[in-house]
Amino acid sequence: MDVNGNVLTTDERNTRVVSFLKLRIVEKRKAERRMVEDYRTNNVIQAALTELDRHNEERGTPIIHL
Amino acid sequence: MKSEGHPSSIYSYVFIDQEPATYLFRTINSIVYEVQFKPTPYLFGEHSPFADSIVELVLKVVDAPTGVRPPRDAVTAPTIAAIINDFYERSSQTITIYICDSSDKRQKARWTTFNRWYDYFSARNYQRFDRTVFDNVEEVTYYCAVIISAENPHRLSIFEAFNRLLDGYNDPK
Description:
The complex is a heterodimer of chains A (66) and B (173).
Chain A: H1 10-41, H2 43-59, E1 63-65
Chain B: E1 9-11, E2 13-16, E3 21-26, E4 32-39, E5 54-63, H1 76-90, E6 95-99, H2 107-118, E7 126-135, E8 140-149, H3 155-166
Parallel strand pairs in B: 5-6
Antiparallel strand pairs in B: 2-3, 3-4, 4-5, 6-8, 7-8
Helix pairs in contact in B: 1-2
């Protein structure tokens, strides 16, 4: 149903969903770009990675055998 | 739903307790992956009782040696599965939405990769519901999934809400 209470046709609902998914994908791409930028500039992330690398170096490998 | 059983190896990863919740791991090839659980409370409508539990899974290679394309790596998939497991252990009511990026027409390959991660889950602990949406105009298929804990008492309502969303009955902002 649209904002005026009219029942949407199958095609109209499909158009609505496709628009929604396209928007989600645009947002996802923005989030991915932010992740790359944050990785370079965010001190918390850099500190966490340094710590991870230190543990990996102590272990001699980044792989954990379960 | 199938399961590959318990993986024998994963990469060591780190959890960063921020919003969005973030995980990092570095592969044997020095490729750094970041996994985020991005809150998307409006997805099932503003007044959904599940709003605070909905996250979108976002995975990105954030660092790679110059010119290196991430090679197929048998340890990456179980690591991502282990990270998702870890997140559910922190928050069992989580509703994870995954939408394959189709903007470069490589959505089918991404969907195959997503299924490979999921194969490492214990099938008993999770329930997953998939939907595809076909864009009749641009002739593009969109692949979408929702994952919840099998213990989630609202699972039927969640799957119904997901269905309504992808049937076009909701108008998410």
